[in-house]
Amino acid sequence: MQIKVTPLGAGQDVGKSCILVTIGGKNIMLDCGMHPGYNDERRFPDFRYISKEGNFTGLIDLVIISHFHLDHCGSLPYFTEVLGYDGPMYATHPTKAIMPILLEDYRKISVERRGVEEKDMFSSQQIKDCMMKVTPCALEETIMIEEDFEIRPYYAGHVLGAAMFYIRVGQQSILYTGDYNMTPDRHLGSARCDKLRPDLLITESTYATTIRESKRWRERDMLNQVSECVRNGGKVLIPVFALGRAQELCLLLDAFWERTGLKVPIYFSAGLTEKANLYYKMYISWTNQKIKDTFVKRNVFDFQHIQPFDRAFIDRPGPMVLFATPGMLHGGLSMEVFKKWAPSDKNLVIMPGYCVAGTLGHKVLSNGGKPQIIDMPRDEGGGKLHVRCKIKHLSFSAHADAKGIMTLIKQAISVDPVNVMLVHGERHKMEALKERIKTEFGLPCYDPANGATTYITTFHGVPVQLSTRSATCSRFPGWAVESDP
Q1: Which of 258, 313, 364, 430 makes the best surface tag, with the fewest CB within 10 Å?
Q2: Residue 456 forms beta bridges with which residues?
Q3: Is the predicted pLDDT of residue 213 greater than 60, yes or no?
Q4: pLDDT, mean of residues 249-273
């Protein structure tokens, strides 16, 4: 028996996660993301690998979306409404609720600002139509897709609603992590699952070789950097995605402003704070225990010192802190503000998350935070930008680091021999982690590139029921094997 795996995205790369798995005769698509580093046809997975003629509904038995980040769900409306897939799709309740907000924001940036033709994209109505076809599921709920074909989501941390998915078809099974975090933070718990003993564990490996410093040290460093900048009259830009690390860092700064009495304004992209609060109230059960315990007294997401931002404030003199989307500076308000504030050496840009190759955020970080001249993207007006502001990469990314990945492997597989596959990471880092997994666990480990197919052979015993009370063991004739009557 074999399991067949082909990444259409996230194979030795971060971006447009889309993993095709054939297990027990069923074809399953794990995530359907887009790549934030591209504006052309490369932003979507190459679905022609599945079929050049279409008929995706007849070829794909199930689509699973692990969470609402666009590199995991950004191609879904295109796959369903433009290419015509109409089969079963599952995501958790928060993921289904939040996905359309981020998809619409992405559509607006692509079509209205970057000039991508809507025929190569998807419309607002198509986003709504697509979401109607997604079936929501609850944590640790076993869902029977067909007879002897089931899925079960487990808590992944990372962002609100993120889930790892256990999939079983007959005797074969896999665990797909999506993105996950093994360290609890200010508003979410750590990833957890049962001793599942899957035949194959497919795990993200964004921080495959990184062991992060303690969270307390990172928080202290960020607060020191921000307060020093604003006390010296500078402006601080923190590019974030609308939900996830944004709420984590807002909690941190809001509490610090309360303790220190700082009067410098903190802003968040207008409209997004209100939407985020709505969903955190609605899905409070997905947060950590501390948030749940305090929720009856006060909603911690009703921030005391953070207010909506107006574009007219960009040129306002004086210090301020701004959380702006998107998180990789690949368009939207964060890029607009960056172009205005970057030329001043009084200002500070803090990059709290991972930036995919091809984005402006990745380009800014690649110079180690030193002053540089950047060629701006053509679809953002082009030209050269003198970056004199301070650039700091303080990782608050909610991905498992190398230690967390090794911990999940121990937690999920027990002692049974299984296979591990690394996706959603950089090739050279995945290679290093692959060797470590082989050495420490003695497990086969794979890291296929996009478009490369891996075949994994699995072995399962066949249960036998003897009809007599005892039977002679052919290998050892003097032994008897007891059986039920």
Answers
A1: 258
A2: 3
A3: yes
A4: 88
pLDDT at 81: 95
- 480 vs 438: CA distance, rounded Å: 39
Both tokens assigned to 377: 């993207």
d(Cα 8, Cα 50) in Å, to the nearest integer? 9
H-run or E-run covering 3: strand 2-9
Q: Tell me what pLDDT residue 398 has.
A: 80
Fold adopted by 215-393:
Rossmann fold (3.40.50)
Torsion of CA 442, 446, 447, 450, to 10 degrees: -170
**What size, in residues, is the chain?**
485
204 catalytic, yes or no? yes
> What is residue 467's three-state secondary structure?
coil
What confidence tens digit (pLDDT) does each residue in 65-97 have?
999 999 999 999 999 999 999 999 999 999 999
Tell me which amino acid residue 290 is.
K
Render pLDDT for 404-450 as a digit per residue (tens, 0 to 9): 999 999 888 765 658 999 999 999 999 999 999 999 999 999 999 99
CATH of domain 2-210+398-457: 3.60.15.10
User: Do 180 and 306 touch, CB atoms closer than 8 A?
Assistant: no
Catalytic-role residue among 117, 118, 141, 204: 204
Order of strands, edge to edge, in the sheet holding 89-92?
Answer: 134-137, 89-92, 62-64, 26-30, 18-23, 2-9, 454-457
Which of the two residues, 33 and 42, has the higher pLDDT score? 33
How far is 1 from 24, CA to CA, in rounded Å? 8
CA 166 to chain centre: 17
